Amino acid sequence: MLKNSAAGAGAPSSTSILSLLAVLALGLSDAASAHDTSTDSTAPVKSLGVVTVTGGQPTSLPTQIPTTIEGITREQIEQTTNATDSEDALKYLPSLLVRKRYIGDYNHAVLSSRASGTGNSARSAVYADGILLSNYLGNGATYAPRWGMVTPEEIERVDVMYGPFSAAYPGNSVGAVVDYVTRMPTQFEGHAKISLMSQPFKLYNTDTTYNGSQESASLGNRQGDWSWFADLNHTDSQGQPLTFPTRLLSQGVASSAGTAVTGAVRDANTGNAPIYILGTGTQYHTIQDHAKVKLAYDFNPTLRASYTLGLWQNTSEGRPVSYLKDANGKAVYAGVVNIGGLAFNTSALTGGDFPLTNDKLVHSMQGLSLKSHTQGVWDWEVAASLYNYDTNIQRQNGTGSPAANTSNPLPAALNGGNGTITDGNGTGWNTLALKGIWRPQGPQGAHLVDFGYQQDSYQLGSRTSLTNNWISGAPGTLVNEVGGHTALRSVYAQDSWGFRPNWKTVLGARIENWTADNGFTTFGVGNAANTQYATRNESFVSPKAALSYQWADDLLVKASVGRAVRMPTVSELYGATTVSATSQYINDPKLRPEKSWTAEFTAEKDLGNSLLRITYFVEDVKDALYSQSILGLLPNPNTAVTRVQNIGRILTNGLELAFNGENVLAKGLDLSGSITYTDSQIMENEGYVVVPGDTIGKRQSNIPTWRATALASYRVNDHWSTTLGARYSGPQFRTLNNADVNGYTYQGVSEFFTTDVRVRYAQGKRWSASFGIDNLNNYQYWNFHPYPNRSYVLEFKGTI
C-alpha cells in the first residue's frame, strides 16, 4: 500500500472538485503560461523572432523568449496528418520522434528530441492547456506522457519550445516543452468523426491483418459569460506483435532430447549472434475511452475561471503465439524443445516466454485556474492540476515477478491458473503555482517580467502479489511492493527587455528545492526484505539568458543559454522489483540529479511566403541519468547488474535546418522540412557495461547522427487536398557501449525511411472525408519493438 506523504506535500487524491480546491489553496499551478492575451481572433505575428499571440486560443509557452518554437494548427493537422492519437501532431516537426508502436499505445510512446533519446522520457515536458501530461514517476519507455488525455479532434494548436530556456519550467524541459491548446468555442459547434484502420503485418512467421476503429464526438458553446466544451472518444485497436521469445543457437546441444519442433525462424540478435525466433508476444487488443469536459466563466472582460475534467480508461489483452509445432502440428509453449537436432535442455520454454496479460486502467485528470488578462501593468494566474491512477491493474499468468514467469504456460493458462497481480492504484501527481506578469511601463513598455511560485508532487505506489487465478483471482502472497514521494518547489523570475531598437534580451533564473521521502521497497516469496530510505532535501539554481537582434527586415539572429537540473524520479530512486542473488536490477536512492548546460544559436531568414532557419545547438550534461549494467555489486563480482546510474558527462553538438513555406512554387503548395545533424558522445563514465571504459567515446543511446522530415501539401481547390510526408532517421545504438551493431532485429534500434500520404475532400466546414496511408513504402524498422508495417486510415467527419 501507499505510504503517507510528508506534511504539506500532498499526495494526489481522487476526482473530487473539493480535493482540487484544496490543492489550489496551497499555492497553485502547472508550470505553464508566461502570459495570456486578449480575446480577438488575430493570427500570431512575428516580431524580433518572437511569436506574439494576440488572440484566439494562445499557446501557454512563454513566447517572448527569443528561442526556437515550432508549431502546427488544427487546420494543418486535418489537412496533412493521419492523426489517430494526439502525439501524431508532432510527427513532422524538426528533431522530434514519438516511439508510437500502434494506435492507442498507452505505455511506450515516449518523446525523443535533439539530444534526448527515447530512453529518456523525463527529459521533455508535455502539457495540455497548462496541465502536466508528462509522467515523471519514472524515466524510460514505460513512463510515456498521458497522450490519451487529449484527442486529435480537441486540438486547436500544438507548440514546441526546444531546450530549457524558460525559467517558468523545471529541468525536465531540457529536451523540449510541448503545449497542446484544445478547443474552447465562441459559439455553438458540434463535431463527429469515424475512422477505420487496417495494418497487414508480415514479419517472421506472422502474416496477419490487424484492424481498428475509432469514433469521437464533441459539442461546445458560449452563452453569455459561460463557455463549455465536451469531447468523447472510443478506440478499438489491434496492434502488431511487439515481443519475440528467442534462444541463442549456442544454448542448444547436439542431442535427440526434448520435443522435436518445427517453425523456429533463424535470425541474428543485436550483437549479430545467431538466434532462433520462437514466436510472438505482447500482441495487444486495446479498447480505450476518453471523456473530457471543459468549463469557463468570465467574471468580467479581463478575468476568467476555467475547469477541466478528463477521464481515460484502457482495457488491454496481450496475447502470444508460438511458431513451434510438434510432429502432430500442435503448438508447443513449454518444456525442452529440439530444433534441428539441437536440444535446449538448460533453456526450456516457460510461462515467461509466452506471457498472457490483462490490463485495466482508469485515470482521471483535473485542472482549475483563475487568470487575469488585462494587458495592463499587472496580470496574474492561480491554478492547480491533479492526475490520478484511480485503477491501474495488470494481471499476468505464472508465478514470480511479472517479467519472469516460470509456470502456468499456455494453453492451460487461457482458462486461469496461478499468476500475479500488479496494482498501481493511487499513484499520480499534482501541480501547484502562482504566476504573475509585470509590465512596468504598460503594455508597450520595454520590460515584461514573468515571475512565480510552483510546486510539483509525485507519488508512486506499486504492489505485486501472487494469485490463484490470474484472470479473476484476488491478491495473495506479496511478491514485491515499492513506493515513494518526490516534490519540487520552485520560484522563478525572468525579464524580457527591449533595451535598444532591434535588440531584445531575456534574463532569468529558477531556484528549486527538491525533496524525496517515504521511499521503501518490500519483498516476499523467499526474498523477505523491507527497506526504508532516508529523506533527501536539495536545492539548485538554474540561470537563463537569451538575446536577439533584427539584423535586417528579413534577417534575425538570436542566441539562448540555460541551465537545467533534472531530478531523479521516484521509480529511479525506489523502483527495484527484486533482491534475489540473481537480481538484474537494483535501485539507487542516492542518485544525483542530472545537470545540463544547453545553448543554441539561430539565424532566421524571412523569404516572404516562407521562413528558413538554421540553428546550432550544444548540450553539456553531467551526472546524466541512464540505465546501464556494471559488475561487482553482488557477492559474485562477475555478475552483471542493471541499474540506473549517473554518467559523468555527455557532450552533444548539432545543427538543425528547418524550412516552412506557404504557396511555394505554386499557389496552394505548402512545403516544410528539416534536417538535423547530431554528434552526441559519452565523455566520462565510471560505470561500464562489460569492461571498464567501454562506454567512453561511444555515442549516446537512441540519438542518430542524421534525421530529416519533409512534408508537401497541395490544395487542389476548395474541396481537395493531397499530402506527401517523409521521415528519415539514421543508424543509432540502444546500449551505452554501442555493442548492438544489428538494429534490424528484436531489441535493436534501426535506421528508417518512411513515407506517408493523405487525400482529403472537404465540403466547406460541414463534412469531410479522407484516406491515408502511413509507411507507404512498407519499411520494416525497429525501436526495440517493431514499428507498424504499411497502415491504412479511412476517416469521415461531420460538423454542425
UniProtKB/TrEMBL annotation:
One of its GO terms (biological process) is siderophore transmembrane transport. PROSITE patterns: TONB_DEPENDENT_REC_3. Residues 1-34 form the signal peptide. Keywords: Cell outer membrane, Ion transport, Membrane, Receptor, Signal, TonB box, Transmembrane, Transmembrane beta strand, Transport. It holds the Pfam family Plug. It is found in: Cell outer membrane. Residues 64-177 form the TonB-dependent receptor plug domain. GO terms for molecular function: siderophore uptake transmembrane transporter activity. Residues 355-776 form the TonB-dependent receptor-like beta-barrel domain. Its main location: membrane. It is a multi-pass membrane protein. GO terms for cellular component: cell outer membrane. Belongs to the TonB-dependent receptor family. This is TonB-dependent receptor.
